[in-house]
Amino acid sequence: MAKAQVDDRSELGRNLVATLTLAVIFGLAARVIELRPLELVRDLGNVGVFLKGYLHPSFAHLDEYAWQCVVTVCIALWGTVLAMLVSVPLGLWVFARGERYAKHHGKLKRSG
Q1: Which DSSP letter does residue 36 get?
Q2: pLDDT in tens, 19-69
Q3: Minimal CB count within 10 Å: which of 27, 36, 104, 111?
Q4: Rounded (5°) CA angle 75-90-34
Q5: Using CA of residue 49, residue 51, residue 57, residue 60, what is the dihedral sign?
Q6: Distance between CA atoms of 19 and 16, rounded to whole angstroms?
Q7: DSSP assignment, residue 34?
Q8: Is 6 left (phi over 0), alpha (psi -120 to 50) or beta?
Q9: pLDDT number for residue 69
């Protein structure tokens, strides 16, 4: 068997393992957040009642609504900061690994 065929099979195996691992992770995550999309179809009447509430809103608790808006913005800000703290170093690390791989295998072509 040629080396290219062996490399293709090992790459296919790694891709398959990575795909299955991601499928398991997403499946577990769906269980954690209790993701049940079929309940939306089954309880469509409840969705209608919920949406009717938006047509005739009550402003009796406006101060609480405003505070919850502030809480939502704070959550979004912290989520953005945490995402940047994780993604920037991870992206730099992945780029360095990719560049090292490309140099090692002679696949890095620079035009300048």
Answers
A1: -
A2: 999 999 988 888 888 888 788 788 888 888 888 888 887 889 999 999 999
A3: 111
A4: 45
A5: positive
A6: 5
A7: T
A8: alpha
A9: 93
Tell me, what's the pLDDT at 18?
A: 94
Q: Which string of DSSP letters, residue by residue, matches 55-73? A: HS---TTHHHHHHHHHHHH
Q: How many CA atoms lie within 13 A of 59 on its CB side?
A: 0
Distance (Å, whole) CA 109 – CA 103 = 9
Mean pLDDT of the chain, nearest integer = 86
Q: In this predicted model, what pLDDT tens digit does every residue of 98-110 receive, in sequence order?
A: 988 888 888 777 6
Distance CA 18, CA 13 (A): 9
